[in-house]
Design goal:
elongated, Serine Threonine Protein Phosphatase 5, Tetratricopeptide repeat, 2 domains, 16 helices, about 270 residues, mainly alpha
Length: about 270
């Protein structure tokens, strides 16, 4: 996909990152320091990834979106080569977000090492980054943040199913924090955490904070989490709400995604109504 980048030097630097060619990358950056500051131009290959439009060079260390099947085994060294030459703070921060939400980095054993390199370089995990990470179920990344000294927030506690901490944090939380914790609990299948958030005032029928085209009941049906479905129905979840992308109800999701247990449960409720 780097072939879609019009700047030849930028394209060469991306190829060096993706192949782990530290010598070539170092030479390009030393000869063209602008590469760490400028954005890729003509990168039409990334138009389907709104979060990766006109990417900065450093973002490519995360391989998120997945642009190469295998990340180079020395990807942390690749990252350091760029960091020592002056990666700007916003790029450190955004690359951390991309790494924390990179499933391929996790699967290939690079997520946590890359996180350590970025955090040591001063990268900051923003509240939005933590929300996105929790919303994509990247729980090891959240645990790594805690291990590096980040405080446990309601969002993190909800994702990890840390019920006592969540209960304490929601005692004086804002309505938006309560709603966010509820959505993250639902996305991660944490039934008791969802119950705690509902008890704290979460709206059972609100659209989710991540994957925001659907409601909690849509997500529970998709994951065929019957305990969660029952909790949501008990608390007044509407079965007739349509999602924002495909205009389907939770039952429609269960039917389309072939979730027979969730389908049977929702069909019973639909007939009863």
């Amino acid at each position: 996909m780097s072939g879609q980048i019009s700047d030849e030097m930028f394209r060469g630097a991306v190829d060096a990152i993706q192949s782990g060619d530290v010598a070539r990358l170092s030479s390009l950056l030393d000869s063209h320091p602008r590469l760490l500051r400028e954005r890729a131009t003509g990168a039409q290959a990334y138009r389907q990834y709104p979060y990766f439009l006109e990417p900065k060079l450093f973002w490519f260390v995360a391989n998120n979106p997945i642009l190469v099947e295998r990340m180079p085994p020395n990807i942390t060294e690749v990252a350091r080569v760029m960091i020592t030459r002056g990666v700007e703070q916003p790029d450190l921060d955004y690359a951390l977000t991309l790494v924390m939400t990179s499933s391929v980095a996790r699967e290939q054993g690079h997520q946590l090492p890359l996180m350590r390199v970025l955090l040591q370089a001063g990268a900051v995990a923003t509240a939005q980054a933590i929300l996105t990470t929790a919303g994509h179920g990247e729980l090891e990344a959240l645990r790594a943040l805690i291990g590096s000294g980040y405080p446990v927030t309601a969002t993190i506690a909800a994702a990890l199913g840390d019920e006592e901490t969540l209960k304490h944090l929601l005692t004086n939380a804002t309505a938006s924090d309560v709603q966010e914790a509820f959505g993250i609990a639902v996305i991660n299948g944490r039934v008791e955490s969802a119950r705690i958030a509902l008890d704290a005032g979460a709206d059972v029928n609100a659209f989710l904070p991540v994957h925001s085209h659907g409601t909690a009941l849509h997500a529970a049906a998709l994951r065929e989490n019957v305990a969660l479905i029952d909790l949501l129905l008990e608390r007044g979840a509407r079965i007739d709400t349509h999602d924002k992308l495909w205009d389907a109800t939770p039952l429609g999701w269960a039917i389309h995604e072939e979730r027979p247990i969730a389908r049977a449960r929702l069909e019973r409720v639909s007939r009863a109504n």
